[in-house]
Write a structure and sequence with these properties.
The structure holds 3 protein chains of 3 kinds. Chain A is of the alpha+beta class. In chain A, 33% of the residues lie in helices and 16% in strands. Chain C is α+β, with helices and mostly antiparallel strands. In chain C, a hairpin with a 6-residue loop joins β13 and β14. Classes of the chains: A alpha+beta, B alpha+beta, C alpha+beta.
């Protein structure tokens, strides 16, 4: 199995790596690039914990071949905030109590980021629709929705 | 051997029945820890931000799978394809020869006891003579890479001789049924006997008999289970991973490895959800990884894929519940008879404790003078039940709340009316004859919930919502009560509090963080008691080498039991602090108050010293700054023949009301509103309590409408999250929670446990609402569209009005 | 036994030897030919990758066609609408053109899976999966869509009614051929459509039953000129209830016609009992409900609502 060259924009910076052809994006991020913020929950594209933004759109990285992002831009949870600052969405999650075990949190935050980028003042139904691809077992979603609403108001 | 649990369920260490005489001992006054002057609490009762939230929103918190993997061997499990079979031979030479394979282990390679289990060690680390469910462990394998390990598994040849299997608990009890374990298929039988059941029924004006059923369901935590076992240079072993019960894992691993407990170190790391499932799954994979690590003398990492989590780990016990209920025509309950066939599956896990709990809770939060319950825990060749949020209560609550509604309907009473007539109040006796002497808020939750939900109007106004008369709205309610902690004879827990010369604090607590917020809440209690800020406390993650025995993080026990232990520990240090402050301020100790880092004269708050300065002085003069607390609940016990007595020391209460819209043609159900009221004693962190409520209700909604592990010939048909369905954002309504505080004298600042209560009455509230909306009564969960459809057909069609 | 082994022992990744990203159609066909059936075309991959992980599919190479130019368009072409082979569900769902000219397709594209899936999964891929209830195949079947298939031998066009051969098998051999275009006549005046879906939860759920109905009415005669009704899963492939459609031809717009159609479709359908998604009896009963509702809504959208009371 010959390695392939992959170059893409990751969290604002260009990255080049030699990877094996069968590598999936989530494993590229976690195992090769050591970015552990993207989580693995099911490897079937069913739970959304592995969500990252590719060209600004939420996708399930667990079923996306890594080579697909060649020349594209990818944002992971690590790319959302520098050092100690927090994106307003992250801040809202903390204040609203929208974080319990935290496993779905990176995916929820990124999906919300993509939503608010396109629709700065979504109503509750639009928020629910856009988050419908990320499962949460802890929160019942209520505080997550409140956090997104808060972040959209604070903008 | 875990003998201290078994005494409570009337068994000795060989699993034999033992006579135990229960006496009611006087309560030791040290059980009550009077809170400090209540007026304004500075930290407790505040919706403080979670201490771990910042790391989580940044994706910087390391879960088990995020730990570095260099140097680790990858462990895998070879699983049985048969539900019940003898193992005739295992040939692993081909697998062992594969480059990169370091070890392939069979039963004979287990160094110590080839058995683990929270209550009974009846589950083999590696099956030797036979397998008992599809997925049972037949061999363990460790290799340099996951890829090699996966390939090597398929090279192990196992010859089985299939045995007849049994998949229904009632079949399993019949004579001649295939024996799954040596002692037969009845693991235990609990009997609750109160009053005179025959007399009770003879006094009834109406008697109803119904049968209810609930399936296996999965916890569905987003983080799949994994573990790391790392042999240490000094001959000890470290096992770390997400887990709710580090001490239970430790004692099991020690026995399995054949080494003393003090040679096993267990660390619980942050979990991506637990819900009871990470009580025993980590023991399962932890012991197995430990055996591989001990054998290979190298670190071993064993991680389950989602499908393997479903295959291998414990689930909620299915129950088949037959109820016969008798009442007067004014709705007063006079007799309750229940029979539970509690399906154990292949191994004991937490089953024996779930079974006693189900029997105790079966009759519900009602004053019933005559009760008889028989609960049979039966092995089958299915995957096994363990602990899952509610521990028997969600199952029986579905049954008792359903039959209350069915009874109300027969008597032409409203569901609210019949419950008010019979609900517990202060001084009531439970089905075990326990007098509820304090912290009783059930009726208050009924009032608060009914008011917030506008029950009377909505109940009256239910009906068709479209011109074509295809959709109908209905409302339903349910109530429940739930214990704080597990009621076993060993239920103590300890905490250490160390204050340093700069005023910073280390808190040592063995309670784990599942996501429920325990780390934050326990830090709040510590801060309140010491008189400092939450930011001054650093909680040391549960490490059995560092923290005192705490018991497992289960049974809604953490806030109450560990909270008390922390208060006692903090008070030891506070003694020194107040004595020193008294010297520094020339004010008697009784006049001093400590809040938010200052100790001051109550009568003259302007005169204060900082906690920091006092701590420094203590250190400089050799005054004790370490505190240790130990708290165990008051003596409890029930008669093993009748379950009469005090099984638990305090209960939380809840009333929930749901509104649904049912599509009368398809059976689809939409939950459009849900209101829930709780008596939690004291909400240490109201936002965290709300979080438990909202999440628990979502879980209950899933149980009501969509969750079911589907089995065919012993094989699970829905292993992944595509086919085992839990609620999404589009399935759960906006939920309103009402928190009431009827303080218990047993809990820190009056707090009772709340983690499990929310998901208990939810399902029956929804099922009752469905019946109200469409006339169809679903008695077998989940009420998916098809089941609702058939229920409507059985009822002869939707209501006319 | 091998399948059972795989059902009990799960791995992380997929085992392919090569991942190719051709830049032109001829290049793609060449690569396919080189592999002699051991390579598979992939676009979004949301079906293929899980199948590879589970071992239900085994190939040496994946040929990712998402770089191919001129395959990602949604255009009107006279009375027809054309979709390129790389159009995603998200694009179809949010396309103003499709919402206006074939609303049922936009609706179907908007409920499949989740937003994450819809962002990468292609409509062409949904057709090629050959699943009897593949969400977009149902309205496309009712819309009398045609697909263009490119192979080394050239391009051919085929009506969707001939495209589905069996469960998981279509007329397209994705180790040799590429689906380049989907086209269908847009809904005209006096036409209306409806899309219905029944599932166990509201997102990320495969359907218990899904239907698409397109009716053409004669407003003066108050009759149903033509009805196209697609259902799934009531057969191994997405299914048009042709006998029912024949009976509906020129029948009056009335409750009686709806009932007749419901009974007829009930007889024509053959859903299996699924342990996961409903028994045969229930699914057949739902066929009746969906036929009545589907026709009723489609007629209303065509401007010919059924007005009788029960």
């Amino acid at each position: 199995m010959k390695d392939l060259n992959l170059t893409f924009n990751l969290n604002g910076r260009e990255v080049s790596k030699k990877i094996s052809p069968n590598l999936l994006l989530v494993d590229l991020l976690r195992d090769v690039l050591n970015l552990k913020g993207t989580k693995v929950g099911c490897r079937e594209g069913e739970c959304g914990a592995c969500t990252v933004l590719v060209n600004g759109e939420p996708v399930n990285s667990c079923i996306l071949p890594a080579m697909k992002v060649a020349g594209q831009s990818v944002i992971t949870i690590e790319g959302l905030s520098k050092e100690d600052e927090l994106d307003p969405i992250q801040q809202a999650f903390i204040e609203e109590g929208a974080v319990q075990c935290g496993f779905c949190t990176p995916a929820m935050v990124l999906t919300a980021k993509a939503l608010l980028g396109k629709n700065p003042h979504p109503d509750e139904s639009q928020i629910r629709q856009s988050l419908s691809g990320v499962l949460c077992r802890c929160t019942g979603y209520r505080k997550i929705i409140k956090a997104v609403q808060k972040a959209s108001l604070d903008k | 051997m875990v003998s201290f649990f078994l005494g409570d369920i009337g068994m000795d260490s060989k699993g034999e029945k033992r006579k135990k005489v229960i006496t009611r001992e006087p309560i030791n006054l040290r059980q009550f820890i009077p809170p400090q002057a209540e007026p304004e609490l500075s930290v407790v009762g505040q919706a403080v931000d979670r201490t771990d939230a910042k790391l989580k929103v940044k994706g910087k918190l390391d879960y088990g799978a995020d730990y570095p993997q260099e140097g680790f061997l990858h462990g895998k499990i070879l699983r049985s394809p048969y539900p019940h079979a003898l193992i005739k031979s295992i040939h692993a030479e081909k697998a062992r020869k594969l480059p990169g394979v370091v070890a392939v282990l069979t039963a004979k390679d287990v160094p110590g006891r080839n058995g683990f289990g929270v209550v009974l060690p009846d589950q083999p680390v590696i099956c030797g003579d036979k397998v008992r469910f599809v997925g049972d462990t037949v061999a363990l394998l460790a290799a340099e890479t996951e890829d090699v390990a996966q390939r090597a598994l398929s090279l192990i040849d196992v010859e089985y001789e299939a045995l007849p299997a049994v998949f229904d608990p009632r079949e399993a009890l019949k004579p001649g049924a295939p024996a799954i374990h040596e002692k037969g298929n009845l693991l235990n039988h609990h009997k609750l006997r109160k009053g005179d059941i025959e007399k009770g029924f003879s006094q009834a004006d109406i008697i109803l008999k119904r049968s209810y059923k609930v399936p296996f369901v999965e916890h569905g935590y987003l983080e799949p289970d994994m573990t790391m076992a790392i042999p240490q240079a000094d001959g000890s072993i470290l096992i770390q991973g997400p887990m709710q019960a580090p001490f239970t894992l430790r004692r099991n691993a020690a026995a399995v490895l054949g080494i003393p407990i003090n040679k096993v170190r267990v660390k619980s790391i942050s979990m991506g959800g637990g819900f009871g499932g990470k009580e025993d799954a980590p023991i399962d994979i932890g012991c197995r990884a430990a055996v591989l690590a001990a054998h290979t003398k190298r670190p071993v990492r064993l991680a389950l894929e989602r499908e393997e989590v479903t295959l291998q780990t414990a689930k909620r016990h299915p129950h088949i519940m037959d109820i016969k209920i008798g009442a007067k025509k004014d709705g007063t309950l006079v007799a309750f008879e229940g029979t539970i066939y509690n399906e154990k599956g292949a191994y004991a896990s937490l089953g024996p404790l779930v079974n006693i709990h189900s029997a105790i809770m079966m009759a519900g939060p009602y004053e019933i003078p005559n009760c008889k319950v028989d609960s049979y825990l039966c092995y089958t060749n299915h995957p096994f039940g363990g602990a899952m949020r509610g521990f028997g209560a969600p199952q029986v609550c579905f049954a008792h709340e359903s039959i209350m509604d069915e009874l109300a309907s027969e008597l032409k009473m409203s569901p609210l009316e019949i419950r008010k007539k019979n609900a517990f109040q202060l001084g009531s006796a439970t089905a075990t004859g326990q007098i509820l002497e304090e912290s009783m808020g059930l009726r208050e939750t009924i009032e608060a919930c009914a008011k917030a939900f506008d029950w009377d109007r909505r109940y009256r106004e239910a009906g068709y919502i479209d011109r074509e008369r295809t959709r109908r709205r209905g409302v339903g309610m349910a109530m429940g009560f739930y214990r704080t902690s597990i009621g076993t004879s060993f239920d103590g827990c300890g905490a250490n509090v160390y204050v340093h010369e700069d005023g910073s604090v280390l808190l040592y607590s063995g309670i784990t963080e599942l996501g429920q917020g325990s780390f934050t809440v326990l830090s709040q209690i510590c801060a309140e008691e010491l008189g400092v800020n939450v930011e001054d406390i650093r909680l040391v993650s549960p490490d059995t080498d560092l923290v005192p025995e705490a018991g497992p993080t289960v049974g809604s026990r953490s806030t109450t039991l560990m909270g008390n232990a922390i208060i006692l520990a903090a008070r030891q240090v506070k003694e020194s602090i107040l004595e020193m402050a008294s010297q520094m301020l020339f004010v008697p100790v009784e006049k001093l108050e400590a809040r938010k880092g200052r100790i001051y004269n109550q009568d003259n708050p302007g005169r204060f010293v900082s906690f920091k300065d006092v701590a420094a002085r203590c250190m400089a003069t050799g005054k004790r700054l370490i505190g240790q607390g130990w708290w165990a609940p008051p003596p409890l016990g029930v008669d093993p023949e009748t379950l009469q007595g005090n099984p638990y020391f305090v209960y939380a209460y809840s009333t929930q009301m749901a509104e649904v819209i049912v599509d009368l043609q398809t059976g689809e159900v939409e939950v459009t509103d849900h209101v829930a009221a709780f008596d939690v004693g004291k909400a240490i962190n109201p936002k965290a309590v709300e979080g438990q409520i909202e999440g628990g209700i979502a879980m209950g909604l899933g149980y009501a409408l969509m969750e079911e592990i589907i089995l065919k010939d012993g094989t699970i048909q829905n292993l992944n999250l595509q086919d085992f369905l839990i609620p999404t954002t589009l399935d759960v309504p906006d939920v309103k929670s009402i928190i009431l505080e009827m303080k218990t004298k047993f809990g820190p600042y009056g707090a009772k446990g709340v983690g499990e209560m929310p998901n208990i009455p939810t399902a029956p509230a929804i099922i009752n609402a469905i019946a109200h909306a469409c006339g169809g009564r679903v008695r077998s969960l989940p009420a998916n569209p098809e089941r609702v459809y058939w229920a409507m057909i059985e009822a002869g069609g939707p209501p006319a009005q | 036994m091998e399948g059972i082994f795989r059902d009990l022992h799960w791995g992380k990744g997929i085992s392919i030897q090569q991942y190719l990203q051709p830049l032109t159609l001829p290049e793609a066909l060449e690569m396919l030919a080189e592999y002699h059936g051991e390579a598979l075309i992939i676009a979004g991959g949301t079906d293929v990758i899980p199948l590879l992980r589970r071992g239900d599919l085994r190939v040496e190479a994946l040929i990712d066609i998402t770089r191919l130019p001129h395959m990602n368009y949604i255009e009107a072409d006279g009375e027809s609408v054309c979709l390129g082979g790389l159009v995603t569900h998200a694009q179809v769902c949010s396309s103003a053109l499709i919402q206006e000219r074939a609303g049922i397709l936009a609706e179907a594209a908007g409920v499949l899976g989740s937003p994450q899936i819809r962002n990468v999964a292609t409509v062409a891929g949904n057709l090629i999966s050959g699943q009897p209830a593949a969400d977009t195949s149902i309205p496309l079947l009712a819309l009398n869509a045609k697909v263009k298939i490119l192979s080394p031998a050239g391009e051919r066009e085929m009506p969707l009614t001939q495209f589905f051969l069996d469960q998981g098998r279509t007329a397209l051999d994705c180790s040799r051929e590429i689906l380049t275009q989907i086209r269908f006549p847009a809904l005209q005046k006096n036409q209306g459509g409806s899309f219905l879906r029944l599932s166990m939860r509201k997102a990320l759920a495969l359907p218990i039953l899904v239907s698409a109905t397109v009716v053409t009415i004669d407003p003066e005669k108050k009759t149903i000129k033509e009805a196209a009704i697609a259902l799934g899963p009531v057969a191994p492939t997405p299914f048009r209830v042709l006998k029912t459609e024949a009976r509906l031809r020129n029948s009056p717009i009335s409750k009686g016609s709806l009932e007749m159609a419901a009974e007829s479709a009930f007889a024509e359908s053959n859903p299996r009992s699924s342990l996961l998604r409903g028994s045969m009896e229930y699914r057949k009963a739902m066929v009746k409900v969906f036929i009545r509702r589907g026709l009723s809504r489609a007629l209303a959208n065509a401007g010919g609502a059924v007005t009788e009371e029960v």
